[in-house]
Amino acid sequence: MKKVLFFTIMLLAVFVVAACGAREYEIAMVTDVGDIDDESFNQGTWEGIEAYALANGISHRYYQPQGESKEDYLDAIDLAVTRGAKIVVTPGFMFEEAIHEAQALYPDVMFILLDGVPHAGDWVPDIADNTVSIFYAEHESGFLAGYAAVKEGMTSLGFFGGVPVPPVVRFGVGFIAGAYYAADEMGVTLDFGPNNYEYRYSFAPDDTHRVRAAAWYDRDVQVIFSAAGGVGSNVMAAAQTADAWMIGVDVDQGGLNDHVLTSAMKALDVSVQQMLDLYYDGAFPGGESRTLTATEDGVALPMESSRFTNFTQADYDTIFGLLSDGTIEVPANHEELVAFFAEYELGDLPFAATDVLPAD
Amino acid sequence: MIELMNQLNFAFPYIIRAMALLSIVALGGLFSERSGVVNIALEGIMIMGAFAGAWTMIIVMNNMNIPLQWNAFIGLSVGAITGMVFSLFHAFAAIHMKSNQIISATALNFFAPAFAIFTARSVTGDRALNVRLDYAISEVPILSNIPILGPWLFTNAYLSTYLAVIIFIVAYIVLYKTPFGLRLRSCGENPHAADSLGVNIYKIRYAGVMISGALAGLGGVMFVLSFSTRFDGAVAGFGFLALAVLISGQWKPIRLILIAFLFALFRVISEIPDELVGIRNLNLPQEIWRMLPFIATLVILAITSKGSAAPRAVGEPFDAGKR
Q1: A33 and chain B: CB distance < 8 Å anywhere?
Q2: How far, in Å, CA of A278 to CA of A285, rounded?
Q3: Which residue has the higher pLDDT, B288 or A322?
Q4: Could you check whether A24-136+270-292 and A139-265+329-356 share the same CATH topology?
Q5: A163: exposed, middle or buried (C-beta count within 10 Å: 0-12, 13-18, 19+)?
Q6: What is the domain partition of chain A in residue ranges?
Q7: Is B305's pLDDT higher than 80?
Q8: How far is it, in rounded angstroms, from Cα A166 to Cα A180?
Q9: Does the structural domain A139-265+329-356 have CATH classification 3.40.50.10540?
Q10: Which one of B52, B121, B197, B300 is most buried, by most CB atoms within 10 A?
Q11: Quick check: A341 and A176 in contact, CB under 8 A?
Q12: Looking at residue A192, what is its pLDDT?
């Protein structure tokens, strides 16, 4: 009896594996930490792929790596290629070294690396002809969010970052710049310093995030910008209890809670679709590194779902125009932030370099 | 002094919330282990409970117009029932099939998040379930005016916390004042002696595991309700934390509550060191505060391990022929 059961299961397993191998998927996505519905980075990417693939009738599939090491990523990429992937999309700077190896291993496969550039672990960019690296101007997105929040009438702001990885840091720096720029324009004094600026070292929900956010709201922080993935849901809960505001990140999170003021978006889906389009037109910009800014509509605030009462569409169009025509150059790191404060005479910068990018 | 009072008023609801959750789940573990079945599946059961509870609350909210707290109550009940049913897998494997209890429980821990995410995604297209609403009771009438205790216990509180208190009292009485409790405890200490006196070991152990499943499932919904506004396929390791509480609490309800309080206290303090006078001046890094409950656990375990009160037959499948 047991033997029969055992063989049945084995047969079934073989059958399942064989059934999987029978189909091929042209467009592949390998996910970063998190899942394709993290309401954030991976989801934005996947939605772009799905929309493009469905519209053009192309087979597509995503693969989740077993872990977060380079080997795990390479295994997942290998699996994708074995299953017939012609173009592989990988979101996140974690893939930089894996893609560096993969682009040499599979010269016939195209790679789209979002938020990173391939390198061999030495931070020297090395983009092969079958890879395109895409960056987003998160600092501009953060700038818009900070500007809008202060224009809306908030004077006490807070920032929750996830892990201080480059995109998260850029979000924070831009948020500071936007907030102080708007404050200067309006002639108000901001309560926004290192005490209200923190990295949570996590992208997952936990009760401690909520306590922290509640403590900030308790000392009259009016809005917290949460650039920290799943931590956002705890901030939303705290905002709801305190009847205060929070700002979402990456994708439009306005539908998740009534206390989401707006979201600092980056147009992941649009950029992925653009690249796929170029690939299928035979014009894949291999070897290039592109940064999508306001000029390319790479960043935005979702004005329809935002809950502004004082900050109008016209205000938004004005500031967005200043960013996209290059009148305002938004700082992306502490050094540039110092220069930005000097250029626009915004007073003393309350943030030290280690506040913005903590030493390891 | 007034400042200190305000800070305590702020921090206490959060401490109580984490403490209620930890002690309810740990109490679940206690029922199972005192009956002789190790239950490290608490985390997985919590996730299942949270999943079912959150989903029910969303459905009820969208289709029926009932008061918020009734909805919370329905969600909590569904979570408890789901947890109970889910724990039956562990009970069947551990009690009837005499399997290794660690392994069958680990299987549940692996299964639960995957199942919850898969199901949620198949049905709603999104792995997270958005409850959207915060179920806090901002003030309990009359009671919130009591000095000190009012702001601590009766403002910004959750229905689940009060349920936890009631459950705890009932559980204590059941464990120590009823024949069932005596039998349950004897099954964990010396099942053969209990068997010789006509106690049905299987029935009692099933009951123990099912109660533990119900409490863990309830705990899962508590996690969603009181910390977040959505279920995201995880409960932040509270199931395992509850196990630590259970062991540090030496499988005794009252000690368990004290340990849960300690864990919750440090958890909250670690997040708001700047806000608390006295603590602020210590200038300790946040990490130290986070470590404290675990260091305390190690110390407590080191001191008390000699007189460890672990149920003697815990983890051993019952075999009537083996005396």
Answers
A1: no
A2: 8
A3: A322
A4: yes
A5: middle
A6: 24-136+270-292, 139-265+329-356
A7: no
A8: 21
A9: no
A10: B52
A11: no
A12: 95
Q: Which fold has domain A24-136+270-292?
A: Rossmann fold (3.40.50)
Residue B56 lies in a domain: yes
Chain B CB within 8 Å of residue A228 CB: no
Which CATH number covers residue B158?
A: 1.10.3470
In a domain, B316, yes or no: no
Torsion angle defined by CA atoms of residues B176, B177, B182 and B188, in that order, rounded to the nearest 10 degrees: -20
Out of A212, A215, A234, closest to residue B228 by CB: A234
Specify if B318 maps to a domain.
Answer: no
SS3 letters across B16-30? HHHHHHHHHHHHHHH
CB pairs under 8 A between A and B: 81
Q: How far is B132 from chain A (nearest CA, A)?
A: 6
B317 vs B101: CA distance, rounded Å: 8
Q: Is residue B319 part of a domain?
A: no
Judged against a pLDDT cut of 90, whether residue B42 lies above it is answered with yes
With CB atoms and an 8 Å threshold, state whether A218 touches B130. no
> Are A292 and A267 contacting, i.e. CB atoms less than 8 angstroms apart?
yes
Residues linked to residue A63 through DSSP beta bridges, in sequence order: A30
Which of A205, A215, A241 faces B232 most closely, judged by CB atoms?
A: A205
In this prediction, the residues of chain A whose per-residue pLDDT falls under 70 are 1-2, 13-22, 34, 38-39, 360
pLDDT at B7 > cutoff 60: yes
Range of the domain at B15: 2-307
The pLDDT confidence band at residue B233, using thresholds 50, 70 and 90, is confident
Interface of B with A in 271-300 (CB under 8 A): 271-272, 274-275
